[in-house]
Amino acid sequence: MKKMEPTVTNQAKTGGIFGYALTGGLASMSVKAAIQNETSKVPVNQTPKFYFFSAESNGNDSSAWASGANTVVNSPAELTLVQLMKKKGRREARVGSMNIGGAKTGVMDKDRLEFTHKMVRPGVYVMEVSKALEPGEYGFIYSLSGGGAGGAMTARIFDFTVN
Questions:
Q1: Of the candidates 157, 128, 162, 151, which has an alpha carbon nearest to the alpha carbon of residue 5?
Q2: Which end of the chain is more exposed for a tag (fewer CB within 10 A), N or C?
Q3: Do residues 131 and 114 lie in contact, with contact meaning Cβ atoms separated by under 8 Å?
């Protein structure tokens, strides 16, 4: 069992801005949260099983899923599983889009990957992906609220690599 530390986003990036500008906003522009390195230090198989320990599990305010200063994830229901796009020197997750019709923030429904969680005992959950994952980069995203670029600068990503 390995402890997964959150990787904090270090940039918010935009994509599709040229098409957005050329079409007067008819084409969408996307906002992405970027994290350093092309690959995670946590390798897993294609059907990984994760154990989530909340503060309730050990009777204190710290957690294996601590997500930054004064921020603790209390339940797997607060996480969103996504596949990260591998870029030179970084990985990205789409966390928003905008066009002439409006803006959306957070992980888009089509980018979410399904996983289940079940309580094993108070404060301890087992989390499993609903179908085998293809080789690549993935992460559980937490805290997409406020901050720059629709939360992209405040996201914490518990990242892993599927071999």
A1: 157
A2: N
A3: yes
What residue type is assigned to position 118 of the chain?
A: K
- If one counts every other C-beta atom within 10 angstroms of the C-beta of residue 10, the result is 11
CB hemisphere CA count around 56 (13 angstroms):
11
End-to-end CA distance of the chain: 17
- Measure Cα distances from 69 to 51, 61, 105, 106, 154 in Å: 22, 12, 23, 21, 11
pLDDT in tens, 122-153: 989 999 999 999 999 999 998 655 544 444 45
Distance of CA 100 to the CA centre of its chain: 27
**53-75 tens-digit pLDDT:** 887 776 655 544 555 544 567 88
Sign of CA dihedral 30, 34, 40, 42: negative
Beta strands at 112-113 and 29-36: parallel, antiparallel or unpaired: unpaired
3-state DSSP percent of the chain in helix, strand and coil, to 5: 10, 45, 40
